[in-house]
Write a structure and sequence with these properties.
With about 230 residues, the protein is mainly beta. The chain folds into 2 domains: about 70 residues, no CATH class; about 120 residues, no CATH class. It is about 5% helix and about 30% strand. Strand 13 and strand 14 form a beta hairpin. The longest helix is centred in the first third of the chain and has 11 residues. The protein is globular, with a radius of gyration of 21 Å.
Length: about 230
């Protein structure tokens, strides 16, 4: 895969599977608290694979061992008393270069919302393959809105910083997610000083997207070259 792949369903399913709930009003702590799940964090690829979401990591949950392998698309779960294999799977939700609603996902634009192009006329798409100008999609937030609908907010680690948003459809029976046609939009940041090189982000407790910058811009010129420093 060379395109930006969003496997949002993986994180969502894992978080549901590893979380518990307690409907009791009793605030007394349990005498024997359940062991906390342990495991390694989902790895972030580097280099040319930065634009792919590949998962290969082990998780340990009390009473179970599991391996989530992006190449097999299968979550294998072995219980203490019996081996089990649970189909897991994931699918590509969207990739850079996706065209909808007159927009191209990941196309970098200037303050006037004009798409930037290279000397050869090709679009400057932040996909991690343009040498020296960015590493691709860095964060995406899946947000449940007040009316119950889902919306994707994605930000890119390229200069200048770009963000896109789109509606997400969810199958009422299977829960599968898909891009909602005619909803892709470029987020104009020019009124708020724009973006520089977007990095990590998170969905806040209030159901909004919170993004960050990879580093702060530095507009001072280098004393020898006369070129503005990147940071």
């Amino acid at each position: 895969m060379n395109k930006n792949i969003l496997a949002l369903a993986i994180a969502g399913v894992l978080s549901v599977g590893l979380a518990g709930c307690n409907s009791s009003d009793d605030t007394t702590a349990s005498a024997t608290p359940a062991p906390a799940p342990t495991g390694t964090a989902l790895a972030t690829p580097t280099g040319v694979a930065q634009n792919e979401f590949m998962v290969a990591t082990d998780f340990t949950v009390p009473g179970y061992t599991s391996n989530l392998n992006g190449s097999s698309d299968t979550l294998q779960t072995a219980a203490v008393d019996a081996a089990k294999t649970q189909p897991f799977g994931f699918h590509k939700l969207v990739a850079t270069g996706y065209v909808d609603n007159g927009e191209t996902f990941g196309w970098i634009k200037d303050k006037d919302q004009k798409g930037l192009v290279f000397a050869d006329g090709s679009k400057y798409i932040c996909n991690g393959t343009n040498q020296g100008v960015g590493s691709g999609l860095d964060n995406s937030s899946l947000i449940k809105q007040a009316d119950g609908s889902l919306r994707l907010v994605a930000q890119f680690e390229c200069q200048v910083g770009a963000m896109y948003t789109a509606g997400i459809d969810q199958d009422a029976v299977t829960g599968a997610l898909s891009m909602k046609p005619n909803t892709l939009q470029f987020i104009d940041q020019s009124g708020e000083f724009g973006g520089y090189t977007h990095c990590a982000g998170v969905v806040t407790p209030w159901g909004t997207h919170l993004g960050s910058e990879e580093y702060e811009p530095n507009a001072r010129k280098d004393g020898q070259t006369g070129v503005c420093q990147q940071r």
